[in-house]
């Protein structure tokens, strides 16, 4: 499928279209970064619009919408993210942080450090510098791997769209060792028809583990997909105490 075809099918995909078409579009989105970006923007704008207060009689709603979107788009991102590597029970993690808040988590896949740094910059659209892990960061991860929970004040989501933030915070409500469906997450944020968009957010989650996209599965309970592979998803869930049915 070409990008234009995906765009033309957008309305049908958002509705109750046939499963084969959804699968084709999903496959295209996973393989096409430009369309992934468009998908994210569409859902982010839609969520922003749903959050706007009811307009006053006679107000210029179009102007308010444009100003609202422009405010999000023009937000400066000059503060750099510091990127450190830390050994954990899951293996080496790359952790990006700003002051005392974590903005990125990545599992080491053997890629060169510079490649990891560039990937973080592209995802957060913010400069990234290599650093040493401070003691508070090591203590936070030590606590996380003992409890499988993290203090919300230590998580930084400001570089994500409102839709992404809402979906990931909903995923964080899932208790360790349990799973929920993409539809459950969509319903939690008041967007029951956006299960597929939730799936895209989980696939692009810059804070896996801390915002547990690994606890989100498809409606049948199948582990479905994971950025680091289904085997890794099953391993993390097993570490939390979930009995994975294969």
Task: Walk me through this protein's architecture.
With 246 residues, this protein is α/β, with parallel strands linked by helices. It folds into three domains: 3-51 and 62-73, no CATH class; 81-154; 162-240, Winged helix-like DNA-binding domain superfamily/Winged helix DNA-binding domain (Arc Repressor Mutant, subunit A, Orthogonal Bundle), CATH 1.10.10.10. It contains eleven helices and six strands. It has helices at residues 3-8, 10-14, 19-31, 33-51, 61-73, 113-124, 135-147, 162-171, 182-188, 195-203, 230-240; strands at 81-88, 91-98, 101-107, 128-130, 180-181, 216-217. A four-stranded mixed β-sheet has the order 3-2-1-4, sandwiched between helices. A two-stranded parallel ribbon has the order 5-6. Strand 2 and strand 3 (101-107) form a beta hairpin. Helix 9 crosses helix 10 (195-203). The chain is globular, with a radius of gyration of 19 Å. The protein starts with a helix and ends in a 6-residue tail after the last helix. 26% of the residues are buried. The model has no long low-confidence stretch (mean pLDDT 83).
